[in-house]
Design brief:
This protein has about 230 residues and is of the alpha/beta class. Helix content is about 30%, strand content about 20%. It has helices at about 5-15, 25-30, 85-90, 100-105, 120-125, 130, 150-160, 180-200; strands at about 40-50, 60-65, 75-80, 95, 115, 160-165, 170-175, 210-215, 220-225.
Length: about 230
Protein backbone atom coordinates (compact mmCIF):
# COMPACT_ATOMS: atom_id res chain seq x y z
CA UNK A 1 0.00 0.00 0.00
CA UNK A 2 1.36 3.43 -0.94
CA UNK A 3 2.42 5.62 1.94
CA UNK A 4 0.48 8.83 2.42
CA UNK A 5 2.65 11.93 2.72
CA UNK A 6 2.45 14.20 5.75
CA UNK A 7 0.88 16.95 3.61
CA UNK A 8 -1.75 14.57 2.29
CA UNK A 9 -2.59 13.41 5.83
CA UNK A 10 -2.99 17.04 6.94
CA UNK A 11 -5.28 17.75 3.99
CA UNK A 12 -7.38 14.64 4.60
CA UNK A 13 -7.78 15.52 8.27
CA UNK A 14 -9.35 18.88 7.39
CA UNK A 15 -12.15 17.27 5.38
CA UNK A 16 -14.77 15.79 7.70
CA UNK A 17 -15.84 12.34 6.52
CA UNK A 18 -19.51 12.19 5.58
CA UNK A 19 -20.04 15.94 5.89
CA UNK A 20 -21.62 17.99 3.13
CA UNK A 21 -20.28 21.54 2.95
CA UNK A 22 -21.89 24.70 1.64
CA UNK A 23 -20.41 25.85 -1.67
CA UNK A 24 -18.87 28.89 0.06
CA UNK A 25 -17.22 26.79 2.79
CA UNK A 26 -15.98 24.26 0.23
CA UNK A 27 -14.41 27.03 -1.87
CA UNK A 28 -12.42 28.22 1.15
CA UNK A 29 -11.52 24.69 2.25
CA UNK A 30 -10.25 23.61 -1.17
CA UNK A 31 -7.63 26.38 -0.94
CA UNK A 32 -6.56 25.23 2.54
CA UNK A 33 -6.06 21.57 1.61
CA UNK A 34 -4.07 22.13 -1.58
CA UNK A 35 -0.48 21.11 -0.92
CA UNK A 36 1.09 21.14 -4.40
CA UNK A 37 3.95 23.53 -5.09
CA UNK A 38 2.24 24.75 -8.27
CA UNK A 39 -1.03 26.62 -8.73
CA UNK A 40 -3.41 23.65 -8.82
CA UNK A 41 -6.62 23.54 -10.79
CA UNK A 42 -9.90 23.53 -8.89
CA UNK A 43 -12.07 20.77 -10.35
CA UNK A 44 -15.77 20.03 -10.02
CA UNK A 45 -17.42 16.62 -10.44
CA UNK A 46 -21.19 16.42 -10.76
CA UNK A 47 -23.01 13.07 -10.75
CA UNK A 48 -26.21 13.36 -12.75
CA UNK A 49 -29.36 11.27 -12.68
CA UNK A 50 -29.12 10.40 -16.38
CA UNK A 51 -28.33 7.34 -18.48
CA UNK A 52 -25.68 8.56 -20.97
CA UNK A 53 -26.20 5.42 -23.09
CA UNK A 54 -29.52 6.90 -24.15
CA UNK A 55 -29.18 9.58 -26.83
CA UNK A 56 -31.93 11.72 -25.26
CA UNK A 57 -30.08 11.79 -21.92
CA UNK A 58 -26.68 12.91 -23.18
CA UNK A 59 -25.74 16.14 -21.39
CA UNK A 60 -23.27 18.29 -23.30
CA UNK A 61 -22.79 22.03 -23.54
CA UNK A 62 -20.61 25.08 -23.08
CA UNK A 63 -20.37 27.71 -20.38
CA UNK A 64 -18.49 30.99 -20.09
CA UNK A 65 -17.04 31.14 -16.58
CA UNK A 66 -17.27 34.69 -15.19
CA UNK A 67 -13.67 34.61 -13.92
CA UNK A 68 -12.17 32.27 -16.52
CA UNK A 69 -10.28 29.08 -15.69
CA UNK A 70 -6.96 30.70 -14.84
CA UNK A 71 -5.42 28.63 -17.59
CA UNK A 72 -3.79 29.97 -20.73
CA UNK A 73 -5.82 28.22 -23.43
CA UNK A 74 -3.73 27.27 -26.48
CA UNK A 75 -5.86 27.62 -29.59
CA UNK A 76 -5.24 26.33 -33.11
CA UNK A 77 -7.43 27.81 -35.85
CA UNK A 78 -7.63 25.76 -39.03
CA UNK A 79 -9.10 27.93 -41.75
CA UNK A 80 -8.88 29.17 -45.32
CA UNK A 81 -6.44 32.03 -46.09
CA UNK A 82 -9.16 34.71 -45.97
CA UNK A 83 -9.65 34.04 -42.21
CA UNK A 84 -5.99 33.95 -41.19
CA UNK A 85 -5.65 37.63 -40.27
CA UNK A 86 -8.89 37.56 -38.25
CA UNK A 87 -7.69 34.54 -36.27
CA UNK A 88 -4.29 36.06 -35.55
CA UNK A 89 -5.81 39.40 -34.51
CA UNK A 90 -8.13 37.58 -32.07
CA UNK A 91 -5.14 35.97 -30.34
CA UNK A 92 -5.07 32.42 -31.71
CA UNK A 93 -1.78 30.71 -30.87
CA UNK A 94 -1.52 28.83 -34.18
CA UNK A 95 -3.24 29.56 -37.50
CA UNK A 96 -3.04 27.68 -40.78
CA UNK A 97 -4.40 24.82 -42.82
CA UNK A 98 -2.47 22.07 -44.59
CA UNK A 99 0.75 22.49 -42.60
CA UNK A 100 -1.12 21.90 -39.32
CA UNK A 101 -3.07 18.97 -40.71
CA UNK A 102 0.27 17.38 -41.59
CA UNK A 103 1.66 18.17 -38.12
CA UNK A 104 -1.35 16.51 -36.46
CA UNK A 105 -0.97 13.47 -38.74
CA UNK A 106 2.58 13.26 -37.40
CA UNK A 107 1.30 13.19 -33.82
CA UNK A 108 1.41 16.87 -32.81
CA UNK A 109 -1.42 17.81 -30.42
CA UNK A 110 0.24 20.47 -28.25
CA UNK A 111 -2.96 22.54 -28.05
CA UNK A 112 -6.12 22.77 -25.93
CA UNK A 113 -8.76 23.67 -28.52
CA UNK A 114 -9.09 23.54 -32.30
CA UNK A 115 -11.42 26.01 -34.01
CA UNK A 116 -12.24 25.42 -37.68
CA UNK A 117 -14.27 27.02 -40.44
CA UNK A 118 -16.98 24.74 -41.92
CA UNK A 119 -15.27 24.48 -45.32
CA UNK A 120 -12.16 22.77 -43.91
CA UNK A 121 -13.92 20.09 -41.86
CA UNK A 122 -13.58 17.61 -44.73
CA UNK A 123 -9.81 17.74 -44.29
CA UNK A 124 -10.08 17.22 -40.54
CA UNK A 125 -12.38 14.18 -40.79
CA UNK A 126 -9.56 11.65 -41.37
CA UNK A 127 -7.83 12.94 -38.20
CA UNK A 128 -10.72 11.79 -36.00
CA UNK A 129 -8.77 8.85 -34.54
CA UNK A 130 -6.11 11.30 -33.30
CA UNK A 131 -8.31 14.24 -32.29
CA UNK A 132 -11.41 12.38 -31.06
CA UNK A 133 -9.90 10.60 -28.03
CA UNK A 134 -8.24 13.87 -26.96
CA UNK A 135 -11.48 15.87 -27.20
CA UNK A 136 -9.92 18.12 -29.84
CA UNK A 137 -12.21 17.52 -32.82
CA UNK A 138 -14.05 20.76 -33.69
CA UNK A 139 -17.81 20.45 -33.25
CA UNK A 140 -20.59 22.84 -34.32
CA UNK A 141 -22.60 21.87 -31.20
CA UNK A 142 -20.00 23.49 -28.96
CA UNK A 143 -19.26 26.38 -31.30
CA UNK A 144 -15.80 25.36 -32.50
CA UNK A 145 -16.91 24.99 -36.13
CA UNK A 146 -17.76 28.56 -37.07
CA UNK A 147 -17.28 31.44 -39.47
CA UNK A 148 -17.09 33.89 -36.54
CA UNK A 149 -13.48 33.15 -35.67
CA UNK A 150 -12.86 36.38 -33.77
CA UNK A 151 -15.78 35.95 -31.36
CA UNK A 152 -15.04 32.26 -30.77
CA UNK A 153 -11.34 32.77 -30.04
CA UNK A 154 -12.10 35.68 -27.71
CA UNK A 155 -14.64 33.63 -25.75
CA UNK A 156 -12.29 30.68 -25.41
CA UNK A 157 -9.45 32.90 -24.22
CA UNK A 158 -11.75 34.50 -21.65
CA UNK A 159 -12.86 31.22 -20.10
CA UNK A 160 -15.49 29.52 -22.25
CA UNK A 161 -15.30 25.76 -21.71
CA UNK A 162 -17.18 22.77 -23.07
CA UNK A 163 -18.20 19.73 -21.07
CA UNK A 164 -19.84 16.36 -21.61
CA UNK A 165 -21.25 13.72 -19.28
CA UNK A 166 -19.13 10.55 -19.23
CA UNK A 167 -20.38 6.96 -19.40
CA UNK A 168 -20.79 6.92 -15.61
CA UNK A 169 -23.12 9.92 -15.62
CA UNK A 170 -20.46 12.30 -14.28
CA UNK A 171 -19.52 15.71 -15.65
CA UNK A 172 -15.97 16.74 -14.73
CA UNK A 173 -14.27 20.04 -15.49
CA UNK A 174 -11.94 22.69 -14.07
CA UNK A 175 -13.51 25.87 -12.72
CA UNK A 176 -10.44 27.84 -11.69
CA UNK A 177 -7.18 27.76 -9.80
CA UNK A 178 -6.32 27.46 -6.10
CA UNK A 179 -4.94 31.02 -6.29
CA UNK A 180 -8.47 32.33 -7.00
CA UNK A 181 -10.32 34.08 -4.18
CA UNK A 182 -13.07 31.82 -2.74
CA UNK A 183 -15.85 34.08 -4.09
CA UNK A 184 -14.50 33.66 -7.64
CA UNK A 185 -14.50 29.87 -7.25
CA UNK A 186 -18.10 30.12 -6.00
CA UNK A 187 -19.15 32.35 -8.93
CA UNK A 188 -17.62 29.97 -11.47
CA UNK A 189 -19.14 26.89 -9.80
CA UNK A 190 -22.60 28.49 -9.69
CA UNK A 191 -22.46 29.46 -13.37
CA UNK A 192 -21.38 25.93 -14.30
CA UNK A 193 -24.10 24.29 -12.19
CA UNK A 194 -26.74 26.68 -13.50
CA UNK A 195 -25.82 25.68 -17.05
CA UNK A 196 -25.91 21.96 -16.16
CA UNK A 197 -29.37 22.45 -14.64
CA UNK A 198 -30.69 24.16 -17.78
CA UNK A 199 -29.55 21.16 -19.83
CA UNK A 200 -31.57 18.64 -17.81
CA UNK A 201 -33.08 16.19 -20.32
CA UNK A 202 -36.88 15.98 -20.14
CA UNK A 203 -36.55 12.18 -19.99
CA UNK A 204 -34.40 12.33 -16.81
CA UNK A 205 -36.48 11.20 -13.82
CA UNK A 206 -35.83 11.50 -10.11
CA UNK A 207 -32.97 13.50 -8.59
CA UNK A 208 -30.93 15.21 -11.31
CA UNK A 209 -27.99 16.66 -9.34
CA UNK A 210 -27.11 13.55 -7.33
CA UNK A 211 -23.77 14.65 -5.92
CA UNK A 212 -21.33 17.54 -6.28
CA UNK A 213 -17.66 17.43 -5.30
CA UNK A 214 -14.88 19.95 -5.68
CA UNK A 215 -11.19 19.22 -5.30
CA UNK A 216 -7.78 20.50 -6.30
CA UNK A 217 -4.97 18.52 -7.92
CA UNK A 218 -4.13 15.59 -5.58
CA UNK A 219 -6.48 16.81 -2.83
CA UNK A 220 -9.41 14.83 -1.42
CA UNK A 221 -12.86 15.66 -2.80
CA UNK A 222 -15.13 17.94 -0.77
CA UNK A 223 -18.80 16.97 -0.85
CA UNK A 224 -21.14 19.92 -1.44
CA UNK A 225 -24.66 20.16 -0.08
CA UNK A 226 -26.80 20.37 -3.21
CA UNK A 227 -29.33 22.50 -1.28
CA UNK A 228 -26.67 25.22 -0.77
CA UNK A 229 -26.40 25.75 -4.50
CA UNK A 230 -29.01 27.93 -6.16
CA UNK A 231 -29.10 26.71 -9.76
CA UNK A 232 -32.20 28.56 -10.85
Amino acid sequence: MARISKNAKTALAKVEKGKKYSLADAASLVKEISFTKFDSSVDIDVKLGVDPRKADQMVRGTVSLPHGTGKDVRILVICTPDKVDEAKAAGADHVGLDEYIEKIKGGWTDIDVIVATPSVMGKLGPLGRILGPRGLMPNPKIGTVTMDIEKTVNELKQGKIDFKVDKYGIVHTSIGKVSFEPDKIVDNAKEFLKTINKLRPSSSKGTYLQSIYISSTMSPGISIDEKSVNTE
